[in-house]
Amino acid sequence: MLKLAGPRAAVRQLEPSLVAGSGDDERQCAHTQTLEEGGVLCAASRSPGDEDQLYFSSTRAHLIKHPCKKNIALYLGRQIFFTRDDFKSSLLPLSIPASMKVGTPEVTSAHIADSVLLLVVNQKIYIYDYEANSWNASIGIEHPVSHVSGDNCCYSGHPFCVGYRFQKFAYERQAELVGSLGGIFYFHSLSQVGVLLIDQGKARFGYSEHPLNSSFGLPFDYNGTLDILITPGQKGILIFWFEKSLLVSRNSGQLVYPVHVKEGPNTLYSSISEANITIHSVAANEYELAVLTQENNLYYCSLGILSSSLIKFAGQNLWSQEAALMFTDVGRVEILTPLPDSVFPAFDFQKCPVNIQAVLMDPQLQVDVCKAELLQGEFDNKMYTIDMNSKLELTALMIPRPGMSLVPLVMVSNPHSLGLQAIIYEGGYTYDGNTKHRLNISLRQQHHWGRADPNFTSSIKRPTGSTITLDIANKEISCVDLKPLTALISVGCDQEKKIVIQNEISACHKGILDPVGLQDNYSYVIEKEAYDPNFQGQKASEDLVVDYQYQKLGCPHLVYYNTPWKPVVELWREGKFQEVIKAEFVLLEVHGLFTYTYSLTAQTALCRAQPQNWTTIMENPGNKGPFAWNRENYVSCHDPDNDAPLRWPNVPYQILGGPTANKVIFDQRNGIYVFYVSIVDPYYSYCHLETTFSVYVYGAFPLSIIPATVTIIPLMVAMLLSVWLAYAVPKLLHTEKGLRFKGFWIHPCRRCRKACACFRGRCRVHQGSPAWS
Fold it and tell me: What is one process in the GO biological process aspect for this record (predicted)?
């Protein structure tokens, strides 16, 4: 068995459609007689010698519907038919080009993935792109293949829909397994890969991820070769069936139990085998299950949260060896039978529509009337995302019939990942006096509720998914149109989130840079001594000219070089500010500038282990590109589980934010720096929150071109000489030579004083003469 790994979500969008007629009129059989023109289905476009007609290996007909595109389906029988208009047109049997050299054109399994068919033909997988009308063989699968399974994403453009591909799967506990492999499936409802193991008539599921990988699901009887149907809607409902067995699991195989059969008001069988019926065809949608038996009977049950029994409809002439069941809408079933055309080499399809709601109104079935009038919620058939530390609020409205009481049930398919809390209250009355019951549902990551044991919750570092379903307990089978409300919840990255660097004081605001000039093909030069294109801190061989990208970076933030600095990182969602991020993040100058460092070292940051840095990240061969430091490969040096020894305590600590007060310190250099910033805290968000921004460093005086030794040595000599003179001159004046030296200078000083005094006297007389006249 091979698993088709891909699309990461699948929810069928139900659209209202009308089927004409009701009751007996809808059970009348009709068939189409028009030939579909063009493409591979037109008889004129085929040459029988160039193609091999495909056929299904099983004696029972199967029908596979595309869960998103309701008109697309694949019929598997003695001939295989592919339709894009819900079997309204006549169809030619599907053939594969002889150039593919498939050998025996026997199909053992098929799956519709987006716009392609995947067919297992003669133990190999072939891909038919029905949009491009082309065939291809799968690449990379070397071993024989028996079956293929997969799922579809019905939310186009959503990041949860990641495409499809085959990938090799290795089960960690494979050495412990006993028995044979019954299948490999990806359960989006659990975010787990499930492995079906069969041994001595019993089967059970093993799972790939914590916490389910430590044990197995409960064993169940595995008689014969069971076909396994994963119902659409991502609710974790599995249907196991063959001719004498019908089993259902509502939690992705953890619990599997037989379906009870109800024939009449007083007869209840515990299993299909006890009821002594032989299954021919099975069909299911998100909410319902229908079974066609070789005894010419149609059975129906609801696939609600709680188990329900198959109810037998009145016998009709519906069965044939080529008949297959198909749901066309909620409560609408068709029995399809291909009929060869009398003129063309094509087949028409006999359609027998059944209105389930009309049949259940038959008094002979004694079905109770539905107790509910309305079950409504805006979240139905929608998809939501819950990121780390986020919360989602949903509301629903429930109205019972007069005199009736209802009990709502809310369930998540993956309780290991998603936790809930529900509150119900009365919210007014209808015009008829019925009480309105409103339900408030709070959803958040199970890890953050704080109510579950860590051994129960999924790993918080791994994005997961779940569905939430709101239904009514013990809902009557007659509530066909009152379907459960379901939403798909992605516990992962919220794509509406982004980070922005706060820029309250820019270089343009202070007049240092001109915004007009920055937009006019502005460029600047980075000296070769200041950058390394390989981000290793080594000097480059030549200067670098950088064209400034104003449209992306705006005006640079202004930073004084001699002040420790840390950018203020803000979280925004859908254009609205959310908070200032305090989680751990890292910086890297995108052009390789290394003229900055950090205020803390590994030791002063109180690291228990050797911290990571950009050099160690880039040296890791598993990290691609220079900007590979992110939440997935970050390991905190404060983590008690980090056992890397602290060998170099004095290296700069390059992580900002978080529990430390680390900051950036710029060297004595003015200019523009363009930084890449990445949030590396794995517990802040599932998103890779990253951006680039620019700063302008100012205030640094140019470095002197004269070597420091040339100025420092003469200055030190002059200082020492001054100190010596201050000590030696007073002592010298008391000696004989000192007295002669002193006398030599006394006579000139006296003459100078007399001359100065005479000069001052004349000035006084001259300045005072006007007062005497």
Answer: flagellated sperm motility
Non-local (6+) Cβ contacts of 504 within 8 A are none
Identity (one letter) of the amino acid at 198?
I
Residue 15: how many other CB atoms lie within 10 Å = 8
DSSP state of 771: G
Residues 539 and 677 in one domain: yes
Phi–psi pair at 577, nearest 5 degrees: -65, 135
Output the pLDDT for position 41: 30
| Among candidate residues 469, 491, 513, the one where a domain is terminated | 491
Q: Which whole-number Å values give the CA distances from 5 to 135, 169, 189, 227, in the listed order? A: 20, 10, 14, 20
pLDDT of residue 739: 63
Q: What is the pLDDT of residue 450?
A: 84
Give me the pLDDT at residue 394, please: 97
* Torsions phi, psi for 717 (to 5 deg): -65, -40
Q: How far is CA 422 from CA 225, 409, 411, 441, in A?
A: 41, 9, 10, 4
Query: Is 675 in contact with 588 (CB distance < 8 Å)?
Result: yes
In angstroms, the CA 566 to CA 655 distance is: 11
pLDDT under 50: residue ranges of the chain? 1-46, 759, 762-773
> How many domains in the chain?
2
For residue 737, what pLDDT is reported? Answer: 64
Is 113 part of any domain?
no
For residue 48, is it within any domain? no
CATH of residue 376:
2.60.40.10
The pLDDT value recorded for residue 626 is: 80
Indicate whether this model's pTM tops 0.90: no
Residue 405: φ, ψ to 5°: -125, 145
Domain finish residue from 441, 470, 491: 491
CB within 8 A of 102, min separation 6: which ones?
Answer: 52, 96, 121, 122, 124, 126
Sign of CA dihedral 479, 481, 482, 488: positive
For residue 455, what are the domain limits?
372-491
Distance CA 33, CA 613 (A): 71
